[in-house]
What does this fold into?
Amino acid sequence: MAKKTNSKRKEYTKEDVKLLKAHSKARTPVAKLSKLMKRSEGSLRQKARSLGVGLGHQR
It folds into this structure.
């Protein structure tokens, strides 16, 4: 049987949003940012899209 993961949602704090915007300006790769913030790439991309900021090196 497949192992179930504990998928509790982790809310974005004001500091998280500030960090995301700063890395957006710096064009940090999403994979690197994902490890730094301990969030999935998809989660970061969705949040960036909802904030209206680009993410990663491709714009």
Q: What stands out?
A: Residues 14-51 form one domain.
